[in-house]
């Protein structure tokens, strides 16, 4: 098993950053040819998703859609830090994703990439990549 940690500086209050290449580099470093990869965010206001990489409007529309479901500001929120929306978005996205390694390659669809999702930035974040051979 291999564990890698990464740091990412987000620049916006809400953004989705492609991290697929970082994970691919970890796979190469590990030398694992077959197994699984788990990416994990130890933050309660940031998570991961796998989604379309071809049209940047998809990322825009996803952030817009989640903002309409979980608005940044609401008179009903009680959380003193003012980031309840970020906690809800992270819960909907999830703090982790599990992917497959086959023949030394990360298996993703033609239009897919792995995104680190920031909902309470800008911040300096970290995430972990666990590679399990098998």
Report on the structure:
It comes from Hespellia stercorisuis DSM 15480. This is Secondary thiamine-phosphate synthase enzyme. With 134 residues, this protein is α+β, with helices and mostly antiparallel strands. The chain has a single domain, classed as YjbQ-like (Jelly Rolls), CATH 2.60.120.460. It is 26% helix and 39% strand. The chain has a 5-stranded antiparallel sheet with strand order 1-8-3-5-6, with helices on one face. The chain has a 3-stranded antiparallel sheet with strand order 2-7-4. Strand 5 and strand 6 (105-106) form a beta hairpin.
Q: What is the beta-strand fraction?
A: 35-45%
Total helix count? 3
Main β sheet profile = 5 strands, antiparallel
> How would you sum up the global shape?
elongated
Q: Given this structure, which CATH class is correct?
A: Mainly Beta
Radius of gyration: 16 Å
Q: Number of domains in the coordinates? A: 1
State the helicity in percent bands. Answer: 25-40%
Question: How is the topology of this model organized?
Answer:
Elements (H helix, E strand, L loop, with lengths): L1 E8 L5 E4 L1 H11 L3 E7 L5 E7 L3 H14 L14 H10 L2 E7 L2 E2 L5 E7 L5 E10 L1
Antiparallel strand pairs: 1-8, 2-7, 3-5, 3-8, 4-7, 5-6
State the main characteristics.
26% helix; alpha+beta; three-stranded antiparallel β-sheet; Jelly Rolls; 3 helices; 134 residues; YjbQ-like_sf
